[in-house]
Amino acid sequence: MRDKVATLIDLTKCVGCRACQVACKEWNGLEGQTTSNRGTYENPPSLSPETWTKIDFIESSGEEGVDWTFLKQQCLHCTDAACAEVCPTKALRTHPLGFVSLEEDRCNGCGYCAEFCPFGIPQMKITSLLAGTAVASKCTFCQDRLTSGMEPICSKSCPAGAISFGLRNDMVLKGEERVAALKESRDDGAKINLYGANLLGGLGMMYVLPDEPGAFGLPSDPSGSYSLAAAWQGLLQPLGGILIGVGAVTAGINWIIARRMANQAVAARAEAGKGADRD
Amino acid sequence: MTRWIRRFSVPQQWAHWLYALFFSVLAVTGVVIAFSVPGFAVGEAGAATRVLHRFAAIGLIVSAVYYAVFGHKSAGRDMRFIFTWSRDDLKWLWSAATRFYWIGERGDLPEEGRYNAGQKLNYLAQLVGFAVLAVTGIVMWLGAGSGSADWFKVSVILHDLATFLVIGLFAVHFYLTTMHPLTKEAITGMVTGYVTEEYAREHHPAWLREVEADEARKTA
Ligand code: SF4
Ligand code: SF4
Questions:
Q1: Cβ neighbours of residue A27 under 8 Å, at least 6 residues apart?
Q2: Distance B106 CA to ligand 1 centre (A)
Q3: What is the CA radius of gyration of chain A?
Q4: Using N-to-C axis directions, what is the helix angle for B117-143 and B43-70, rounded to 10°?
Q5: Full-prediction pTM beyond 0.90?
Q6: Which of A124, A253, B114, B186 is exposed most, by the fewest CB atoms within 10 A?
Q7: Is the interface score ipTM higher than 0.95?
Q8: B114 at the A interface (CB within 8 A)?
Q9: What residue's CA is closest to ligand 2, atom 7?
Q10: Which chain A residues contact residue B53 at CB under 8 A?
Q11: pLDDT in tens, chain A (279 residues)
Q12: Alpha carbon of A51 to ligand 1 centroid (Å)
């Protein structure tokens, strides 16, 4: 097995230029979207089937007017991925390299992944509103590039050096070192943390966060959804299968015994009938 | 001459067979999706299976509503009956499950009315299963992507559990009414609406007495 890879997204370095956002569209052939001015530089407003990664502009009032912090949103490529756990078609799968792949051809549009992902990542592209059919879409960690030995396009395109890519162990180390250094050097260092080193079995995309996860809308404990999904798929469904098997066997045995008894009863009645005739 | 006795009203028969039809489609498509049966669950085929599942769901709900409206007399009687339980019913369940269905001996089996305790339990549980499946199904259908993730998750899992319940019940019901050597005559009742007097006497003696008392009152 090859070693797992990961990206480390350092939000203390992100300048909000959106080069990654554009590069992602370019590489993955995703259409541009028409949006309207909402009084913010953040655009488009949310992830969508055509936008797999997107910079959130989080505004706060600072010394010189508005302060921004940025969050690069995309699939976090969980090791314990709720989406892959619930996906009935195996369109979503955890890849040994440490990312969650998506094969759109396999997707049947059930939408379970979108509802179970603790980060709200998968986006359903509706193909027929009436019939309720759709296809899931999300960041695939540039699965085509990764499996051919290249780094994802976002890390390649980032001019600020905010996105590093490499072996996961190295990325965790790098993140820990970076957090430790920032805690030293920055006045507001206390809140700086590494997000995702151990969450959900280890995320394939980790963040260096300048503030608590909640400030970025990230759950500090996203494990509930995966536990629920795993209990459902790993426990309830097999249990149901076993019950059905036991039931079928019981019915078979019952049929054999009951038939024998019924035949005996018929034979006994016939005997009695013959006896009566002779009398 | 065999005497035939009306057991099920015409709306009851229609409702039953329509329900059976849509139930079968739902069960098959549902199992196909849940267990990802090759060839029918993945990609476009899977999308088609899901669409079929939804149309059948509408059919099922409509057939239940049809019964409640056009069969309201029998439906009302059913409801009163299945929600009335006595100690004898429990006793019946026990001795039927451990004795009667195996060796055909009535022993101390209490006398059955229109429905025996097993049929009552089946009816009740199907009703509960139907309600859970309909509500959770609607949540999954209309609630997808509307930010109702917790409801959706709970619904998906409840839908799964209720499916095991109703398919399990259906299997028992199907087995007892069409295959079990001692009770398979029951299917005739639902197909024709009538059962023989012997069948009624053997399996629903209390009900037969009621029917006969009714007839006596009418002719008197
Ligand atoms: S972030 Fe969501 S979509 Fe991505 S792997 Fe985790 S559960 Fe799946
Ligand atoms: S929508 Fe597609 S990818 Fe998502 S869980 Fe369903 S089949 Fe899998």
A1: A142, A145, A153
A2: 59
A3: 28
A4: 130
A5: no
A6: A253
A7: no
A8: no
A9: A107
A10: none
A11: 568 999 999 999 999 999 999 999 999 999 999 999 998 889 999 999 999 999 999 988 878 888 889 999 999 999 999 999 999 999 999 999 999 999 999 999 999 999 999 999 999 998 887 777 899 999 999 999 999 999 999 999 999 999 999 999 999 999 999 999 999 998 888 999 999 999 999 999 999 999 999 999 999 999 999 999 999 988 888 888 888 888 889 989 999 998 888 888 888 888 887 655 544
A12: 15
